[in-house]
Design a protein that fits this description.
mainly beta; 15-stranded antiparallel beta sheet; 15 strands; disordered N terminus
Length: 297
């Protein structure tokens, strides 16, 4: 990716880093919380059912590219591009390698962000095994690395500039976690497994050094959803939820989202609150061979 002008800032990342785990319902959903153990229960169920990468997997299709565009009021802020790169070994397990490219448009006041995120998510459970990101900071790039050691119940987190570590933190892990990229696919799996049933759950999430959760209610009902990618409304399942931590710009609290009502479970749109108003995230482009979106009647 080219290196357009920008800066590293957790503050300015938030509209877009929120997009990382919101599009999947684009990722979303709950008002009543179920215990974190439910997350582990679903993981075990994934493993027992052998939800692994396979030619017949309706969700995990290597090569899939999904691009979202974020807007605030009348301003188009930028895009987030998700790509499922394939499978590889990570920390002794087969994992999906997932990438996201985040780029704000030029000329947007107070928002100048360019970043690359990569995650290795366990191929059976989609919990996060390792993740990293590079964010532009003036003339340099700041690299952040995460290693999830579930056996030792520790998250190793560090930041570096030009290969020199500037900050390092070890955090305790009380359960298995996902992150924004892994969550994008994890929730799609949950929706597929739910088979149209309404489900309420809380998903543990790591964002930077914050360990928190996103509450979800999936399959609240089908309704049409308009997105930039298509000139017709797509039949979608509505979801709603709550972010249990606060980012700068006030990104927190309730949100709603829509995901395609078919076996691909493609995230379509998310509406989320910020300090002054709301941000809308819509599907702009998708590369998924053979996929025909379900047209709303």
């Amino acid at each position: 990716m080219s290196k357009p002008p920008g800066r590293h800032s957790t503050n300015r990342v938030w509209i877009f880093s929120s997009v990382l785990f919101l599009p999947c319902i684009s990722l979303l959903v709950l008002r009543s919380v179920v215990a974190f153990s439910f997350f582990n229960g679903i993981n075990k169920s994934f493993s027992d059912q052998k939800w692994q990468a396979a030619g017949g997997d309706s969700i995990m299709q290597p090569g899939e590219v999904v691009v979202f565009e974020a807007s605030y009021l009348f301003f188009k802020l930028g895009t987030v591009r998700f790509e499922l790169l394939g499978k590889q070994e990570c920390r002794g397990a087969q994992a999906y390698r997932i990438q996201a490219l985040i780029d704000s448009y030029s000329g947007i006041p107070f928002v100048n962000l360019h970043a690359i995120y990569e995650t290795c998510a366990d191929a059976r459970t989609l919990i996060c095994l390792a993740t990293s990101n590079d964010q532009e900071a003036g003339d340099d790039w700041v690299h952040t690395n995460y290693v999830f050691d579930y056996a030792a119940k520790t998250l190793e987190w560090d930041q570096s500039v030009k290969g020199v570590i500037t900050k390092k933190v070890d955090l305790p892990l009380d359960t298995t976690y996902t992150d924004g990229l892994g969550f994008f696919y994890y929730v799609r799996k949950v929706c597929a497994r739910a088979d149209g049933r309404t489900m309420r759950l809380a998903i543990p999430i790591v964002s930077d050094t914050v360990r928190s959760s996103v509450q979800l209610t999936i399959n609240e009902g089908q309704e049409p959803c308009d997105v930039t990618a298509f000139d017709f409304p797509v039949e979608a399942e509505r979801m709603s939820g709550h972010i249990n931590f606060e980012g700068t710009f006030g990104v927190t609290g309730d949100f709603v989202g829509w995901i395609s009502a078919d076996s691909a479970e493609v995230p379509l749109r998310a509406d989320l609150k910020v300090l002054l108003g709301s941000v809308v995230v819509k599907l702009k482009e998708i590369e998924r061979p053979g996929w025909i979106p379900p047209r709303a009647d």
